[in-house]
Hints:
The longest helix has 37 residues, at 276-312. The chain has a single domain, classed as Amino acid/polyamine transporter I (Up-down Bundle). Mean pLDDT is 86; it is low at 1-16. Helix content is 73%, strand content 2%. It is an all-alpha fold. Keywords: Membrane, Transmembrane, Transmembrane helix.
Amino acid sequence: MASNEPNVVSSHEGELKRTMTFFPALSTVMGTVIGAGVFFKAASVAAVTGSTSLHMLSWFLGGLISVCAGLTGAELAAAIPETGGMLRYIERAYGEFWSFLLGWAQVVIYFPANVAALAIIFGIQFKNLFGLSNAAIIPIAIIAATTIMLINFLGSKASGMFQSITLVCKLVPLALIVIFGLLRQGDVSVSLFPVEAGAHVGGFAPALGAGLLATMFAYDGWIHVGNIAGELKNPARDLPRAIAGGILGIMVVYLLVQFAFLRTLDISQLAGNENAAMDVAGKIFGGMGGKLVTIGILISVYGTINGYTMTGMRLPYTMGLEKQLPFSDKLVKLNKNKVPYIAGILELVIAVGMMMIGGFDMLTDMLVFVIWIFYTLVFIAVIKLRKSEPDMVRPYKVPLYPIIPIIAIVGGLFILVMTLINQFQLAMIGIIITALGIPFYLYLKKKYK
């Protein structure tokens, strides 16, 4: 039945045209979430779980939590379709202070840590592919992050085109590893039952918590998929289908990739092996074929760095416009291509500093822990705003309310608590860096009052 709704949705930023249907929304979800984590988090998940069964369960539960998280967060995205996304949801529910802390955490931890971690893994794979020494990893990582920043300085059209090209390169290695990895006779027998932790990982619950934390880096990105709500013709029908179908599809792909990995490498060979993706590709496709697939993975990682660079450099610019950061007048400066180049340089400098002091797993675990504090606040905000603002226009409401938000909240709390138990020092570093924003908030609030 045709809808009588006008073909636009109002927002503070103007009007968004409702032109998107289900399948473009589905591909947007999958393209946003699928990144480098599926290739390179396998090693850390295997290391902390110690068994094939718990390894696979971690990826499965990580997907289910992400489905519930995406379905929950999308309610606020549809109701508050404003530039800033999660910043606006947090501000609406909890006030300016918590919104500032989220922005601060994203500027000084989330985006630069993503760039740093991915650049390090790029350096490791590049080093292994060309037989270089370990001393080359960090210089290669810095070169990768810097060249991507320079591409972004050419303007959003150049960086967007580059992102589209690398999206294809991201999907090709995935498809090849899944298809040929499952068709060939496996080198290793994979046992999925009974589900149990490895003998030396410290118990089932801590191992599952650490495994979930690691998988969350691969599933990260679902918070952004709700941003398409204002452009869907029928958000109430198509948004939950796109999110649930998209993340379930991603979960299936991830499980198939992990199964192919485990059929090719024993769990002990996979655990902690930063070169696992290249080893698997070499075993499946042989020497030259493995190298070609690895090159495809490298291009994929390079493109993923571009995505976080393109988004990350615009956040300090946006916060600068609102006088929410030190040196805000500098952060809002644009180059001739209308790119916030000083904000970009700031993010690059922080990322390079992180490359010097942290490895891939440390950086990704810290950024996931910090961002999941705010994700969990978003889930709680859905319930909070249902009570405090019952008349808010909600083009889409989370299905099976409040069950799905509660699952998302419980999943988020489990990840946070287990990180505090298993990686207390890392968690405290993340909390302390986030809390360092408080003096700046108080100073700037007083200055611009």
